[in-house]
């Protein structure tokens, strides 16, 4: 028995049974979401680094009419909340900083060497990530917070699926790529 066979969500549920069919989980959810504006959303994961491990899970279900007559989940979250969450991630330097510290905390010199950011430029971006609670100062260096790891894994995972680098032709955005 492989570790996947005993997992709560198996590789078979996520993987494609054949190249022409969507994964089993996607097929099931398509059967549940029958009308316009139906949403089934799951964001979940687990992360282990050295002696630290954590997991997260958010579920968002909106099938059929909302009995409370509330706005659809896609429009009821204030846009300012979305901007507050995403704007610290909307800079290549900040993503690179987070990627560099993904495996372990880093001192400012290590971050500077790995990202080519120097002095005030590096500290400006670190300050923005700290303010967003994606990075924390720790033992004279900097480390991802659990939220920072979640956000990095999420945005990089999305970019891996929807952005394709076509070399000299530039980026192709919006089509699902094989990553």
CATH topology term of the domain at 78-179: Arc Repressor Mutant, subunit A
Average per-residue pLDDT, rounded, comes to: 81
Helix content: 40-55%
Output the radius of gyration: 20 Å
CATH class of the domain at 78-179: Mainly Alpha
Instruction: Extract low-pLDDT stretches.
Output: none
The name of the CATH superfamily of the domain at 78-179 reads Winged helix-like DNA-binding domain superfamily/Winged helix DNA-binding domain
Shape, principal axes of CA atoms: globular
Output the structural class.
Answer: alpha+beta
Number of helices: 8
Please state how the strands of the largest beta sheet are arranged side by side. 1-2
Distance between the termini: 28 Å
What does this structure look like?
- With 179 residues, this protein is α+β, with helices and mostly antiparallel strands.
- It has a domain at 78-179: Arc Repressor Mutant, subunit A, CATH 1.10.10.
- Helix content is 40%, strand content 20%.
- It is built from eight helices and six strands; from the N terminus they run ααββαααααββαββ.
- The strands form three sheets. The chain has a two-stranded antiparallel ribbon. It has a two-stranded antiparallel ribbon with strand order 3-4. A two-stranded antiparallel ribbon has the order 5-6.
- The longest helix has 17 residues, at 146-162.
- It is globular, with a radius of gyration of 20 Å.
- The protein starts with 10 loop residues before the first helix and ends in a 6-residue tail after the last strand.
């Amino acid at each position: 028995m492989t570790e996947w066979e005993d997992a709560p969500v198996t590789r078979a549920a996520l993987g494609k049974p054949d190249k022409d069919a969507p994964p089993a989980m996607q097929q099931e959810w398509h059967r549940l979401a029958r009308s316009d504006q139906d949403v089934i959303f799951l964001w979940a994961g687990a992360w282990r680094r050295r002696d630290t491990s954590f997991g997260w899970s958010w579920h968002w279900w909106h099938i059929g009419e909302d009995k409370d007559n509330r706005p659809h989940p896609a429009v009821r979250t204030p846009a300012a909340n979305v901007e507050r969450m995403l704007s610290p991630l909307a800079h290549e330097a900040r993503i690179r900083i987070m990627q560099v510290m993904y495996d372990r905390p880093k001192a400012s010199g290590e971050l500077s060497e790995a990202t080519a950011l120097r002095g005030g430029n590096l500290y400006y971006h670190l300050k923005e990530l700290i303010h967003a609670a994606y990075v924390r100062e720790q033992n004279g260096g900097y480390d991802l917070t659990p939220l920072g790891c979640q956000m990095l894994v999420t945005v990089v995972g999305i970019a891996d699926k929807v952005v394709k680098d076509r070399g000299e032709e530039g980026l192709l955005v919006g089509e699902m790529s094989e990553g």
